[in-house]
Prior knowledge:
Oligomer: single chain
Strand order of the largest sheet: 2-1-3-4-5-10
Number of strands: 10
Largest sheet: 6 strands, parallel
CATH superfamily of the largest domain: NAD(P)-binding Rossmann-like Domain
Bound molecules: NADPH dihydro-nicotinamide-adenine-dinucleotide phosphate, the ligand O=C(O)C1=N[C@H](C(=O)O)C[C@H](O)C1
Amino acid sequence: MPEPVLGIVGTGRLAAAVGGLAQAEGHSVRVYEPRAVDTWRQGPAADVVIDCSAPAVTGQVADLCGELGLPLVECVSALPDAQLQRLRALAAGVPVVLAANLSLGNYLQTRALRSVAQVVTTMARAGIDGAVPEAAVLERHPATKAHRPSTTAELLAREWTRQTGADPADVASLRHGPAVSDHTVSLGWPEQSLVIGHHVASLRAAAAGAIGVATWAVGHAPGSYTVHEVFDDMVAAMARATGRAEESQ
Length: 249
Ligand SMILES: NC(=O)C1=CN([C@@H]2O[C@H](COP(=O)(O)OP(=O)(O)OC[C@H]3O[C@@H](n4cnc5c(N)ncnc54)[C@H](OP(=O)(O)O)[C@@H]3O)[C@@H](O)[C@H]2O)C=CC1
Ligand SMILES: O=C(O)C1=N[C@H](C(=O)O)C[C@H](O)C1
């Protein structure tokens, strides 16, 4: 099968990082300018769409993908419920990957957090008092970031709650400093603490994930996937290909 043409919606920082890396890796790219929707249906379509724009644009992106049957990698954060519902409806016909954080480090951070949560909840069920620590999430982005908290911070908090049944004590935001982001989960017991942190210095981290996930989405069945489900699937395929036991989730 020929390499898919990657459609990128956006002209900002993330779009530039995805487009720059895609071209450096030899992918064909079509840019969909978010303020020129009337041009989107002109010329040959892409094979998959990577939305790097803004919540105001997501409905039009979903319309395009629905009409042309194109898989969608949705990278925009802080989507309102109405947009998320629109994407769920779209997923009946095409693969839709919800990808609020595309970096490998966030995937590993989330898996590490889940692993810790599973151990301490097992200890708590066995009757060990105080096994489950108090959690807190702190995210930092530059002052230019549009909303707070980041969707990534909300997802880390939700993962902790899902695994332990306890909400983090706080999900806090800091707006200062350089690109791109820091996400820190602090776990505190009275006598000790554990910090699971992830620092991103370049949007190339997200761009690499976006290109891999978009390529995965082409040819996959319609449905709604999280980016971490896609990474799980990729890791399982690598484990099979290298003859190792499949990754346990
Ligand atoms: N999934 C991930 O790993 C990552 C996700 N993100 C998320 O991706 C999104 C984009 O981030 P970033 O590239 O830094 O943002 P930028 O502000 O640099 O770019 C946003 C893009 O959307 C366009 N846009 C914004 N508002 C509108 C509007 N109302 N109508 C039409 N077009 C609009 C902008 O056009 P114009 O310049 O003309 O305003 C620009 O092309 C954010 O939601 C961010 O949180 C960011 C990094 C990583
Ligand atoms: O705006 C950003 O830069 C980022 N936004 C995403 C989020 O809100 O979770 C992911 C990452 O933090 C970069």
